[in-house]
Amino acid sequence: MCKIFGLTSTAGLQMPALHGLIQRSHKSLTATQKDGFGFAIGSPTGDHYVEKWDNPASFPGAGQWPSIRANLAGLPVEADCVTSGTFPSSTGGAYIAHARTATCSRGAENAHPHASHGWAVVHNGVVQPTKGRTKPCDSIHILDSLVTHKGASKLHSDVAGYLAILAIDPKGRLAALRDERAPLVVAWVPSLNAWAFASSDTLLAEIVSAPHDKAYTLQPYRHATHTGKGWTHEEVKRWDASKAVNSKASKAFGDSRPLLNEEFPEYSGSKWHSNKKWSF
After folding, report:
1. Contact between residue 129 and residue 149 where contact means Cβ atoms under 8 Å apart
2. d(CA 170, CA 184)
3. Which residues lie below 8 Å from residue 180, measured CB to CB, with a gap of 6+?
4. Which residue has the higher pLDDT, 132 or 247?
5. d(CA 62, CA 59)
6. Closest to 54 measured CA to CA, from 121, 100, 6
């Protein structure tokens, strides 16, 4: 089993605090998951910063490896690390992190987040494609479905198995989804004006390191998307994690104008909100 963490927005953090969040993510997630570590920081342009390590113990700190490698040019020093995008100079983007116990080959390429075409996703669980050839890492099939269908509308038919995912979409918004088997909790963090997600409430408390409301298990087969400022009342009502979270969101954001369904066609409609089950 892997472990995941996510934050809808890092706008409530100064840069030193963002680095602290990433370090706590690394420490807590890799305490038991030793086969890879990675994280992504979202950008509204889709140019998310992604960094992944095969060996979590080699992680020198967020965004440090490119400059370390440049300074060691010509020396026989290398690390199994993959980066893409530019580490942000200011906070604000959504954040996701992952540590793995490998169910497929080791290597930074197979560490999470997987990213393509403005999407970045971390996954806890095991899946297989319902059609086509199996790829080197099962989580890539989840990414392929998100990219191909511009969201999660076909995920239930594209993969079989079990999953909890946190994803950053091409507009930099965080999305969270779980089935009935994979754990994922959510809690409101007042000081950060953000929602935090994690594989367990203990993990969430370790990484957030700030007072937060009680963590609730995210309801299965529901979707939540984030605007960058906070879920609107209508969004939470449609994809609420619990009545308590719905009430808290309503108080925090009031009856602000909901985003139109047309803006998120992949997340609306009878197909997604039907009681279809995942295949196991």
Report:
1. no
2. 23
3. 220, 221, 278
4. 132
5. 8
6. 100
Give, in order, the Cα–Cα distances in Å from 279 to each of 137, 156, 163, 189. Answer: 19, 8, 11, 34
Sign of the CA dihedral 49, 52, 56, 60? Answer: negative
Spatial CA neighbour of 206 closest among 39, 18, 21: 21
Q: What is the pTM of this model?
A: 0.79
pLDDT in tens, 78-104: 678 999 999 999 999 899 999 998 777
Amino acid at 73: A
Count Cβ atoms within 10 A of the Cβ of residue 222 and give its class: 0-12 exposed, 13-18 middle, 19 or more buried: middle
Beta strands in the chain (DSSP E): 3-7, 37-41, 49-53, 81-84, 95-99, 114-116, 119-129, 159-168, 174-178, 185-189, 194-198, 216-217, 224-225
**What's the pLDDT score for residue 271?**
30
**pLDDT given at position 214:** 84
Nearest to 188 by CA among 168, 207, 215: 215
Q: How many CB atoms lie within 10 A of CB 115?
A: 23
| pLDDT tens-digit readout, 182-240 | 898 888 888 988 889 999 999 999 999 888 888 888 766 544 444 434 433 344 334 44
Structure tokens at 18: 């963002």
